[in-house]
Fold:
Amino acid sequence: MTVPIRNHDIAELKRLDLAHHLPAQTDYKLQQTLGGSRIITRADGVYIHDGEGHQILDGMAGLWCVNVGYGRQELAQAAYDQMLELPYYNTFFKTASPPPIRLAAKIAEKMGGHLTHVFFNSSGSEANDTVFRLARHYWKLKGQPQRTVFISRWNAYHGSTVAGVSLGGMKYMHEQGDLPIPGVEHVMQPYSFNEGFGEDPAAFCARAVKAIEDRIVAVGPENVAAFIGEPVQGAGGVIIPPDGYWPAVEALCRKYGILLVCDEVICGYGRLGQWFGHQHYGIKPDMIAMAKGLSSGYLPISAVGVADFIVDELKDKGGDFVHGFTYSGHPTCCAVALKNIEIMEREGLVERTRQDTGPYLAKALATLNDLPLVGETRSLGLIGAVEIVREKGTNLRFLDKEGEAGPVVRDICIRNGLMVRAIRDSLVCCPPLIITHAEIDALVAILR
Ligand code: PLP
Structure:
């Protein structure tokens, strides 16, 4: 079935946008200056189309989420069928419907091993709120109520709710609203291009891990509930940690009896070439947060995967976990997520990312290294970054001196038909997992 292309009155939409709409994470003064938001009207495969008739290669999969690409009729059909049968019912007070139960079992299969249970929410932020509350609840049940502190990294992104911003390490977000809330400690991120430039990778890795251990000791290990981190930091700039970092962090958590939490909101669902990012690093977190690729963004849904020993404690001690949302286990969202996973399995998107398109993207990005502006390219699976430098062979940035170059280059890319994101002086990409070699070539050609 072909979907008819609707004509939108873009001038009218821009007028209404300015008059009534507050888009997320936006400078409203700039929104006025620009005459309204960029309006995306439709999408297909790896391409989005704006209201002015431009076709743009979506190098960001929306907001790091449209893993199976746009225009999947099967997902629309799954939503349609479920809406007619049971559009909504809640999972409060010992109630459920078939889709969340089936989806929980499917996710448990993908997580494998000791991560056996799943708690549903609607957004990545809510998933991390759930992690926050569940970890503290667990330690109370265990008779260690003083274990409340979370250790996280600078530039981590864990969401936009009060707990999400607090767990996250974005200083500019902390500044609005007097955050973080008490009980969150931030340590250095394993960003070798910035913080370990020219340093031996093993020495840098040891230094980044020691920063965590030093903080655990300073806080008092008996007070620490959990360490939380994205396997690869996304919004922090696509920070791929050095080899050995995650196993060493896991060992620290085990040494001090601290819960290890992976925020898989971006890294989950094939992004790093495994179902979950932690599987790439061979570690066993005690909880994982997931969202985005779980439904490829077609409907809002997130989840927390929980280890059996935590669930055993809840089951053993009893008492309500007094946490949950109206849309926890939303049947339609769960039905779409189930279909999304089925598509990923059928098309082998995880394996393809690991064995084919991921390595292809790495090679293609590396061809940019001859450019005088490029300081480093890096990627893992289908997430990557290009560092822009002021002087080749250094990590000196334009932002040190003349403002950020990243947004300037990003705007040039968009004008040339490529959506990428600027994070300070780097450009990052995270395309749909269906991207082909030819589309990767086009992405890199526009970047060049
Ligand atoms: N965690 C990570 C790693 C993210 O990248 C994001 C969003 O980009 C979130 C959490 C928050 O997810 P949401 O925007 O769905 O609340």
Remarks:
- DSSP finds 17 helices and 15 strands in the chain.
